Amino acid sequence: MNPRHAFFACLERSPPALFEAALWIAAEHDPTVQPLLILQELNVLQQQVSLGMPLLPADELGQPLLRRLNDLGFAQDDFTPLRPAAALLDKVLQRKRGQPLAMGLIAMELAQRLNIPMVGVNFPGHFLLRVPGADHLLDPCGGRRLYPNDCRELLQRQYGPDLKLQADHLRTASPRSILQRLSRNLRQLYLSNDDPLAALVDAERVLELGHASAADYLARASLYQRLDCPSAERFDLEHALLLSEDPIQRLRLTQRLGHLPPNSVIH
């Protein structure tokens, strides 16, 4: 079974094997990554975390878990510009540095092993965590509590005052949507680090996970443009045109399609 097939097999389990699926994403980029071995090695980290946890009810252990990880050296990767290593779980575990989403995936896996209730939240620009029933969210990078006003401030710092906090921003994320976000992150990181072929691997996975947006098709079309694949670029631009509801974007897509050679038909 190749890494892509193993990835989707993880999603078919009940419950889905979220952390293992993310490891198979790393294995797709590096054949030396062994997800099953990493899962076994995580037992050591689990023991280290468990030894420093306070004696509290399970639903009060979310923040202590994150603080314990921080005590062990895990923190947000602030290297500029960010590299793919900030989102690849094998590298994050080695370096103890990563994007909030990668940190959140590690925390959720440990929480599951320690019977601590914890779910992910696809907050715009900064992945967050929640203990179900709590009146706050948690920053996976250190465990800071975020109440609604804190979430508004975080949103404004990243996107400006025009983007208002919405209920959708605070909803529990499904495993599939979390992995799609991880794939989008990697797509952008590889592109930013001038590796369009690696970015294409993640761009394809984004679409295979379903419910892709016009922006997702447009992102892959731009990769095909860089790789000089006009037929594949046309295919994605046509799909982006079908999905787009922005009249200005639709006009630009139509113009861009007009500059591409027509697809050839072989009989």
TrEMBL record:
Residues 39-183 form the Protein SirB1 N-terminal domain. It holds the Pfam family Transglut_core2. InterPro entries: SirB1_N. Belongs to the UPF0162 family. This is Tetratricopeptide repeat protein. The lineage of its organism: Bacteria, Pseudomonadati, Pseudomonadota, Gammaproteobacteria, Pseudomonadales.
